[in-house]
Amino acid sequence: MQSVLSSLLLAAEAITVFSARKMMIIIILFFLRQLPTITEQSHTQVAYPFDEDFTIKCEARGNPQPTFNWTKDGKPFDLLSDPRIVASNNSGTFVIQNRGIITNFQGKYRCFASNLLGTAMSEEIELIVPSVPKFPKEKIEPLDVEHGDSVILHCNPPKGIPPLHIYWMNIDLQHIPQDERVSMSLKGDLYFANVEENDSRSDYCCFAAFPRLRTIVQKMPMTLKVSLKHANDSGSPNAAVTKANFIKERKPKLLIPPESAGSSSSVTVIKGGVLLLECIAEGLPTPHLSWIKVTGNLPKDEPETENFGKILKIDQVTTADEGTYQCTASNPMGRAKHEFHVHVEEPPQWIKEPEGGVYSVGTNLLLLCEAIGNPEPTIQWKLNGMPIDSRTFRGRISAREISLTNLQLQDSAVYQCEASNKHGTILASANVNVLNIAPLILTSDGENYATVVGYSAFLHCEIFASPAADIRWTKDDSIEPLSTLRYELNKNGTLEIKETRKEDSGSYACWAANSVGKRAITANLDIRDATKLVVTPKNPRVLKSHSILLKCQSEYDSHLKHSFKLSWRKDGDQLPVNSTENGRIILDRDTLFISSVTLEDQGVYTCVASTSLDSVTAESQLIVLDVPDPPEDLQLSENQNRSVRLAWKAGASHNSPINESIIEFEENRWEPGRWQELTRSPGNDTTALLSLAPYMNYQFRVVSVNAVGRSQPSKPSLRYATPPAAPDKNPENIRVEASEPNEMVMKWEPLKPVERNGPGLEYKVSWRQRGVEADWNEETVKKHSLTLRNTPTFVPYEIKVQAVNNLGSGPEPNVTVGYSGEDVPDAAPSGVSVDIVNSTLVKVFWFGIPRDRVRGHLRGYKVRWWKTKSMLDGKRHHPEKHFLTFVGDRNYGMIPGLEPFSEFRLTVLAYNAKGDGPESSPIVFETPEGVPEQPRFLRILNFDKDSVTLLWGLPKKANGHLTGYILQYQIINETHEIGPLNDVSVTNRSTLSWRLSGLSSSTKYKFYVKACTVKGCGKPVTEEGLTMAQGTYAGIYDGISTQGWFIGLMCAIALLTLLLLTICFVRRNKGGKYSVKEKEDLHPDPEAQSIKDEIFGEYSDSDEKPLKGSLQSINGDIKATESADSLVDYGEGEHGMFNEDGSFIGAYSGSKEKGSVESTGSSTATFPLHA
């Protein structure tokens, strides 16, 4: 409580904006007494001669307003004692004007600020009044020395404000060169370890620079003369110098520290400062300086030295730098040493400072003061700026603490603790203010607070009271203090409600009471719904160059909608609201759209939603997938004649693991610039042993593959050449080709460049006739073919091809059998005969030609046939030839598509790759009668209510002698149900019309007409019609049917009806009532049925529907007058083909008669159909 009140007192003095609460604090403090406190003071001050005045600051606060007085060097100092001092009102600050001699102002000042409660004291303020530094005017005698002597030129710079910089220069302001022999000490003297003749000069000048005083002063020039001794002992000056030097040679002697200091000395350095140890030696030859630390190690492996090794420097000294250091000066004549015992000391530093505060009457006081330093500081306590007399002080006092019991109002005072050693003094003050006041609540009454569910709520109740007040909080109308675990009362009176809930809303009261009085205030708390966020999609994986849309879905309390804000961050950095990168990244409040995603877009995207009460975030990590980076650093090792190991470093996989590495090669001997795949290795392998071919100059590269795709190839490796070798393999695919009968061309696949294995590749070809005892014939060629002429026709040869190069031959080659050139067969098949299968199909038999008459590889046989005359009318026909090809060595074939009741001639020939052989002698055969084709048309005439007249045309092809017609009819209705079928046989083949009686009126009928021969009846033609309801209509029809206008009307109606029937036909083909199958089932073709049973069973055991289509084709769809082109669809190439068993390919698998039946059966509708 004391520290809280103390902080309130300090804060009140800085108030500039007068809110109600701050105004209350000021009113309270206005009536409260306050001890003086120093708020600002000067420290060491230098009175520079070029300044107009010098300000010594001392500011303090207190109530009542403090008064100020000063001491100088421990004695009272009156600011009115000198007119050059200008004092400030209500302040201890004064100004000394720079007029006249001001050296008497130099000294140590201390400021005291006092009021009725006590006195505050400042730290000592030292004012330094420097004099203008000057070298004394003096006459400096020249120095005469001999060559090799040591010399010291003293600078003795005047005193001044540091820092001091000393320079040795000549009269032309050029620096005197310094080195290991000639150098300047820290004090500014110039040391010569030994002089040389060129050191003689009369203008050695020492310059002292004081930057803070803006002054540089120069000492009078000094003269140094170096003479040669014993110069007359030799005729040569150089010899004289050498002799003199020999006489002067001596071991090193330390000039700094001087010999009088002994072999060791002590050095004290302040912790944190800079340690400078200096050794300067004289001697001839010039001594060399080195440093070691006798106790412990040097702070660095190589100690930092300056001035050509003569100064050892350590910055930021610590206690670890304490110890003994040794410098050694050495030359060939000997050495000199000196030890420095370094002690690290430090000025006082606080461990514990006394802390003041506001105390209640009757309480106890304990002030602690503790400091460290080297030497150990002394502690002195002061009361109101004066040393405490322990004899009169009513409390207890020791070096480290002061204690008082039962404090009273008069115990208010300023206590000072001062710690000192030889390196400095530090001062700490503690204001002890003893008060007795009833509680004052600084927080306004009726404050409204709000928070969101799950967050903590803080209800403030700031109290000023002495003695300290007891504080308790209540809710709503309850008088019981809040005490559950979720309620926490802080020391400053604030009530913290943790993990708030909706039911925490309400009115709260803060009660404060002490022995002097009590106070209370109220506060209102509202609990809002917490804001919720989710970013979708969560952690998406996106291919580079694709697009991604992140959406931030949020829920928040409706009371907070005016303060609700959304923003986006990427990897913690705010994304601008406006679109970025030329519109590639677009932010639109709750959406973030990134088009053409790059690898740099990868990262964590955070949606931030904030209201006046809470702030929440939701993250989604965008993972960008891309092809791998190219592999790097290809290295070759384990070099062998046929292998080498390739190693590489995999590139970045870009979030998709590398599945495999493709190793490619390029060789510049055979195919320079062409990269080819050599092998592949699993994705996590970065090395592979490569199998190589001889006589290649390889370089390699690696391509990494992941699920996204392939990387760019790596940079190529170094080239690796393999030595040549004999071939490892022989050519493949050896074959014989010939275009002439007495010629044989042997060909093979040449070896690839990687298979050559060496220079000078050739092919050794060996051949001999098979079955003949003879030596191998050989010929070596560079091409990949060899032509032999004057060979027998179609004779087998054994052939070998072996690869050969300059280093040897390949393995023993395999023997391949090939034949010399072919010629056309020279014999025709014999024993040709024909078996009649039915009226359109025959089976042909023949005897094949002998093997030796084929004169090549037998390809098969061709059957040619042509029609000579019709058996119906006896007319002869122009011979239009047809043929079918039967592949392979066979002796029979099936000839389909013949015209019934006709005479044909037929021949057979053999063929090979060279061409066709001679044809056999023609044989003559006749096809029997067949069933007719359907009549050309069917029309319905003279419809009556119970009768109808049918008119039909002759069949397109009779295929034999007509024996009559079969008429059939049946009732059909709108439900597409079929009635019983009625038959009428017309035995007179000349009859082309018929009147049917006994029909039902107003009934729809379907009529069928088909022509017949002795072989049976053909396919029917059909028509539908509707009988009339009354006989009068029939009379009208008979009267007008002969009129011209009526005939025109009927034609128009017929065209329209034809269109409608065509539509019906299409629908029926898709599954309508009158399918081909139903018609065939209703009207079976006896001849077709016999063909199915007797013939086609041996061609195929399939029950598939295409077989039925085959029958229909044979029944008459293949016209006898058609050319051979009509059979192209059923044969090999342009001729057609038969299977091995003689079945005709395609004739029974592709033709559908359903369409042909329907289209043929359609005819122009008659008027009664629409009556």
From TrEMBL:
InterPro entries the record matches: FN3_dom (IPR003961), FN3_sf (IPR036116), Ig-like_dom (IPR007110), Ig-like_dom_sf (IPR036179), Ig-like_fold (IPR013783), Ig_I-set (IPR013098), Ig_sub (IPR003599), Ig_sub2 (IPR003598)
GO molecular function: cell-cell adhesion mediator activity
Source organism per UniProt: Strix occidentalis caurina (northern spotted owl)
Name of the protein this chain belongs to: Neural cell adhesion molecule L1-like protein
Classification via SUPFAM superfamilies: Fibronectin type III, Immunoglobulin
Gene Ontology BP annotations: axon guidance; brain development
Spans annotated as Disordered: 710-732, 1151-1171
Residues of the Fibronectin type-III domain: 630-725, 730-823, 828-930, 934-1031
Biased composition, class Polar residues, residue ranges: 1157-1171
GO cellular component: axon; plasma membrane
Subunit annotation: May interact with L1CAM. May interact with ITGB1/ITGA1 heterodimer and ITGB1/ITGA2 heterodimer as well as with ANK3.
Pfam families: Bravo_FIGEY (PF13882), fn3 (PF00041), I-set (PF07679), Ig_2 (PF13895), Ig_3 (PF13927)
Membrane topology: Single-pass type I membrane protein
Membrane-spanning parts: 1045-1066
Superkingdom of the organism of origin: Eukaryota
Record key words, sorted: Cell adhesion, Cell membrane, Developmental protein, Differentiation, Disulfide bond, Extracellular matrix, Glycoprotein, Immunoglobulin domain, Membrane, Neurogenesis, Phosphoprotein, Repeat, Secreted, Signal, Transmembrane, Transmembrane helix
Family the entry assigns: Belongs to the immunoglobulin superfamily. L1/neurofascin/NgCAM family.
Domain Ig-like: 36-128, 130-223, 252-343, 348-433, 439-526, 531-617
Protein's cellular compartments: Cell membrane; Secreted, Extracellular space, Extracellular matrix
Coiled-coil stretches: none
PANTHER family associated with the record: NEURAL CELL ADHESION MOLECULE L1-LIKE PROTEIN ISOFORM X1, PROTEIN SIDEKICK
